[in-house]
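Pilot study result, target chain (348 residues):
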Amino acid sequence: MLQDLMKYPIIQAPMAGGASTPKLAATVSAAGGLGFLAAGYKTAEEMRNEMEEVRRLTGRPFGVNVFVPSKEVVDESRLTAYREKIQKEAESVGASIGEPMSDDDDWVNKIAVLKELRVAVVSFTFGCPESGIIKELQHAGTLVTVSVTNPTEAQIAVTAGADILCVQGIEAGGHRASFDNESESDQALLELIKIVKKETNVPIIAAGGLMDGKDIAGVLAAGAVAAQLGTAFLCCPESGASPAHKAALHNPRFTDTAITRAFSGRRARGLVNRFLMEYDRVAPAAYPYVHHMTKQMRKVAGQKGEPELMALWAGEGYKRSRTLPASVLMGELVEEMNIESRRGCHEN
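Predicted structure:
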């Protein structure tokens, strides 16, 4: 069972793009939570190296998240038009627009490595793998969780044999975990937990805008077995988020978050900056094509401290983020969760 892998029901979300470092995952696991690596945008060999590093840092269980490849067809003319619109933005920071292309994120090789190294938990995002893959991982002793954003996706994952559902509310930072690129699933977390819990009988991990112990206690009371927090860990020194990204979370210039396809072609929540405002309405629903087009621009902008051209992924609760070592943050989350749980017991 998932609860057997951690002392506290706190999961550090896998955040692709560099934030979820081996040190962050190991620190969270060592502190009694469940740390996660994000294999997205990495090769299978890079993923293997990070897994081995976590095991050098801690003997505690941890998880690995993998992107499920998309087979969706895209409109080439819209990609070309979008490239022409954003070319000047990349040039403004000395970068160029990449080729709009698709890839499977080294899917087959990653599954092989995960079966070989027998990680405690594997989570899947952007879709549900076929039942055969899920069974093979389970046979290797791995718990399989699938991220879902609506009841239909939840039923698909349960039918395929998932052990756990990671239910992602609209409040979540970063990419929507929807199974298809066109999905407009916008349900709030607590309501979605209720619906999924009623319609399925597998354990639920709650994800979406959770920042403190009170939030954690709230989703546990709603029926989740654990809470998954991403933005809450972004400002930890162990996080690999860029200095510009960390600074933006506390910059009064940024006053809100919004969901956009502007940076990757897939809906994702981030701080509202100039690029998001200017290009959201014209960005095609074409992941990972748009991701490959903008990734060099985003990287160079981060290196030059130019947040207006970065994908500043953040959940709705980002203003409550804390700049603390991950172990200290874990301690505060646990204390807050316990206080809130005791308060709830007394009120009942």
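One observation from the pilot: Residues 148 and 167 are 5 Å apart (CA to CA). A full batch analysis is planned for the follow-on phase.
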